[in-house]
What we know:
The chain is an alpha/beta fold. It is built from 13 helices and 22 strands. It has helices spanning 12-23, 39-44, 46-64, 80-104, 163-166, 183-194, 214-226, 321-335, 364-370, 385-390, 418-430, 435-439, 450-461, and strands at 2-8, 28-32, 108-111, 113-118, 121-125, 131-141, 145-147, 160-161, 175-179, 198-202, 230-232, 236-243, 246-252, 258-263, 265-268, 272-274, 308-310, 349-351, 356-361, 374-380, 396-402, 408-415.
Amino acid sequence: MQYDVVVIGSGPGGYVAAIRCAQLGLKTAVIEKYPTFGGTCLNVGCIPSKALLDSTEHYHNALHNFKEHGINLKDLKPDFSQMVKRKNEVVAQTTGGITFLFKKNKITSYQGHGSFTDKNTISIRKEDGSSESITTKNVIIATGSKPTELPFLKSDGKRIITSTEALNLKEIPKHLILIGGGVIGLELGSVYARLGSKVTVVEFMDSIISTMDKTMGKELQKSLSKLGMQFMLSHKVTGATVKGSKVTVTADNSKGEKVSVEGDYCLVAVGRTAYTEALGLENIGIKTEERGNKIPVNDHLETSVPGIYAIGDVVKGAMLAHKAEDEGTFVAEIIAGQKPHINYNLIPGVVYTWPEVASVGFTEEQLKEQGTKYKSGSFPFKASGRARASMDTEGLIKVLADAGTDEILGVHMIGPRVADVIAEAVVAMEFRASAEDIARISHAHPTYTEAFREASMAATDNRAIHI
């Protein structure tokens, strides 16, 4: 079977690339090695984690905040098995939606492990051991990533677990030891902290979410500490041992002293590694980078082999589902002869704890390092009428603007629904808006987005109204 484009992998990057290719009139096929479409994001990542985050946030609010709202409940307790069941139903509905979209767009799908025989021939090895080959003019590699394992601390899938197992535990941990203070770990850690687990975060860096603006890490740590989460920052993990139902994690602190912590589960969440093994890349002369197994690409996301493209977690840049989606659309349009663009500096990052954290553009630390002259304005949600009404007063919005031109250079938020609010900042920055532009745009009252306007007003002339 001859195709115009074959996409290997059906995660957010892969399925979006395939649909866009089909929309552009290209004969398209997708190869997926797992039984369901959607990759890590839909099956064991973004979607299931958000389902559990929402369920546990409802429980936490019912337990701690409903009484203040005038809602009295008795004998409240979490039904964890029902939470997991609902999460699985959400996943099934979402992955099933991809199946529908493939049929709607007349995309051919193959189940099996795809690998290169040569640059135009893909071999598909199926579960029953059989294989078949298809030919194509172009290939988009969208195979995603897998949890990074520490060489001295291997997951056993039972007591030492990755994010995949953390989404399907049969019980609520008594004490969850979380190795890594990044997005994935903190989201899942907050799930179990809300359900009553003791959660201890062991982090190598001196702050959590260390790639984001430092203010965000400080504010989020304050908030998560209120849930009872404990933080061991500047600690280098050296190993872990399992005895029965107990896990003991050892680490060196900033002074070089050896410390240990004991729990019943240890979640290793130290990042993700590109999944590029067994693709037959050596058969077409593509070599992955030593660090992270990523595939080198040019500005068109084309590899060293003409007609072979790579997107998402297997190439440089942040490992984000929406970044992969944008790249999938980008490559499809490149293949079709169009001239799309992506501004990587304006791809937002989000942490779906509560309060949520969202960020786009340069951090304050980056601007200082670059020597860029900037001005900063911030507005706390405790001064927001809408936030007070919903009892979500933690957090703030910070706007960074060029000192000379007033162009917005970065926006950083922690607070209620900022995962959605950040989109306004992205749109503004795509059109190179100034802080004053946002300050002069009418925002509905009362809304959380007013905090973005007030922060912009603070950055413009230090003229925020409500602080």
